[in-house]
Amino acid sequence: MMNPPATDAPPRTNFVREIVLEDLKTNKYGGRVHTRFPPEPNGYLHIGHAKSICLNFGLAAEFGGKTNLRFDDTNPEKEEQEYVDSIMDSIRWLGFDWEHRLFYASDYFGQLYEWAQKLVRAGKAYVCDLSADEVRKYRGTLTEPGTESPYRDRSAEESLDLLERMRVGEFPDGSRTLRAKIDMASPNLNMRDPVMYRILHAEHHRTGNKWSIYPMYDFAHGQSDSIEGITHSICTLEFEDHRPLYDWYIEQLGIHHPQQIEFDRLNITYTLMSKRKLLQLVEQHHVRGWDDPRMPTISGMRRRGYTPEAIRNFCGGLGVSKTTGIIELRLLEHHVREDLNKRAPRMMAVLRPLRVVIDNYPEGRTEEVEAVNNPEDASAGTRQVPFSRVLYIEQDDFREDPPKQYYRLSPGREVRLRYGYFLTCTSVVKDDNDDVVEIHCTYDPATRGGNAPDGRKVKSTIHWVSAPHAVDAEIRLYDTLFLREDPNQTDEGEDFTANINPVSLEILTECKLEPALAHVSPMERFQFERLGYFCADPETTPHKPVFNRTVALKDTWAKIEKRGVGQIGNLRPIVNRLPGLPSQ
Ligand code: ATP
Ligand code: MG
User: Fold this and answer.
1) Which residue is closest in CA terms to ligand 1's atom 25?
2) How far is CA 233 from CA 25, 226, 261, 359, 430, in A?
């Protein structure tokens, strides 16, 4: 399979791409472009990872290169096979293919150990008996140099012997470390004799109990890149200060030297991107799981109905830079709407039904009206929708006492039924609480198809479902999981869970769908006219469709654009056109 470009649009250039272009020009890596995506399997992938995936796979695809998938599994305590499986599933779903190039940092444990021994022999590393606390104390601060460990000048023989005994499990956790001998006075704290190996008697998801020591990220990452022949090792900005160490290990070992390049992490309003915090949401049951449609995970977005194309277009349009910003959630939703607008068949569904009886429509009669499947795609054709004497409309589309500028149905008011007839409300039926439970109307048979021969106009068009033909469904509506743009902004003594939106999920169980939706399969996507885009949930059964609202129709884009929010590139606003629907 060929990897798709990261975005459907022509590549927007950025400084990482410019570095690659320059390296191709100077033939730095013999014309090769070889990137990797290196997730730690300690959680599900989120939309931030998608930015990195699109960048890595996208660059390689553009220049005829390759991208590896490498699990950075050097932390046995937090890693699990479930996460490995979900990560592969999410990357494939996004549309990218690592072909046969699936690797694990743990595959290199043997080679890394040999390299560690080599550095010890060369006097570049030593076994240190300081505790973690002491190591921290000796490290110094940004303004003060560190102090050399009393074990720094231990002989290579002694260090080699201790290292081997650490490896086979002779010593307890935390009792010793292997450290690089660099410079305790370096202004870069990462260069002050960083730890290379720690003792950890933990079972690893792949190597089991074979190892009692595990390499630190910095000692594993660059060498893993090197082993795989990576040319451009693209990571996020927090690793900028680690680059000198990345380079140091590779230079000391004299092995192939990839170029590490750091870019800005993606942040989105109302969204958390730390796997640790996402795990907390799952474990504390604030959400229904990693793939809850409110989660910023790829699997959550997928379940919600987002498309891979929408996510790729979003990522492809983002800047790649050296300064971290925050992107509006609405930009992502904009891409979701834009993509679904092209591909989602239109249907009619009523979320909160109100019964309508058309008194002058013959009892027992059913007719079919023709409805357009997708105004954006003529090849999608039309379908027949049953119409009868009793219908459901949205409670919202009727007001007994209409406020000014409310043009939908109310007593005495005439509106258009989408694809049907003009309808006039004549009376209402109320229950003991004075709530309207049913309305009575008349229709004008001369207006079939939606126009009056006498040319009279109505101000609004509403959707409907024929009651005897309706399919019952459950529909889940979502709001942002957090109430604050920055979910990490909390008052003293609180953590981010204090910002959780208590009404981020609303479950409607009495919804009515047009009969064409009786046999939907999980993950089928539709636009329910006037309501938004919806995707059938995996919990859908043949007897009961369950839908998630992917995103509402209303496009706030125009407003955003007026406000002139930064970082939105040259995107144009979209309009969800519903031909024949006057704006309301
Ligand atoms: P988290 O803090 O969410 O756990 P991480 O950086 O620890 O993220 P990794 O599994 O190590 O997660 O990340 C794999 C790759 O994805 C890395 O190259 C990392 O830089 C990149 N990445 C992670 N989060 C983001 C983000 N928000 N934006 C862009 N790239 C990201
Ligand atoms: Mg990490």
Assistant:
1) 48
2) 18, 10, 6, 71, 68
Is the CB of residue 4 less than 8 Å from the CB of residue 95? yes
Q: What is the rounded CA–CA span in Å between residue 395 and residue 353? A: 6
pLDDT at 358 (0 to 100): 98
Q: Which residues of the chain have pLDDT under 50?
A: 1, 557-558, 564-584
Q: What's the pLDDT score for residue 79?
A: 82
pLDDT of residue 8: 57
- What does the block give as tokens for 36? 């990797």
Atom of ligand 1 nearest to the CA of 266: 28
Token digits for 210? 């074979």
Known catalytic residue at 275: yes
Which of 265, 277, 355, 399 does the annotation list as catalytic? 265
pLDDT at 577: 28
DSSP character at residue 527 = E
> Between vectors from CA 261 to CA 259 and to CA 267, what angle results, nearest 5°?
160
What residue type is 478 in one-letter code? Y
**Is residue 51 annotated as part of the catalytic site, yes or no?**
no
Ligand 1 and 278: CB distance under 6 A: no
Q: pLDDT of 439-490, one tens digit each?
A: 999 999 999 999 999 999 999 999 999 999 999 999 999 999 999 999 999 9
Q: Which of 16, 42, 49, 59 to mutate to test the pocket of ligand 1 (most atoms within 8 A of CB)?
A: 49
Q: What is the pLDDT of residue 42?
A: 96
pLDDT of res. 565: 42
Q: What is the pTM of this model?
A: 0.92
CA 323 to CA 503: how far, in whole Å? 34
Residues 6+ apart with CB under 8 A from 480: 270, 271, 294, 329, 501, 504
| Longest Cα–Cα distance in the chain | 102
CA atoms within 13 A on the CB side of 502: 1
What is the separation of C-alpha 87 from the centre of its chain, rounded to a whole number of angstroms?
Answer: 12
C-alpha 524 – ligand 1 centre gap (Å): 30
Q: What is the rounded distance in angstroms from the CA atom of residue 544 to the CA atom of residue 532?
A: 20
Specify the residue with its C-alpha closest to ligand 1, atom 1.
274
Apex CA 35: angle with CA 570 and CA 314, to 5°? 25
Beta-ladder partners of 128? 177
The pick from 52, 297, 318, 323 for probing ligand 1's pocket by mutation, whose C-beta has the most ligand atoms within 8 angstroms, reads 52
Checking 92-97 for CB contacts under 8 A at 24+ apart, the result is 93/298, 93/302, 93/308, 94/50, 94/53, 94/54, 94/298, 94/308, 94/311, 94/312, 95/3, 95/4, 95/308, 95/309, 95/312, 96/3, 96/4, 96/53, 96/57, 96/67, 97/1, 97/2, 97/3
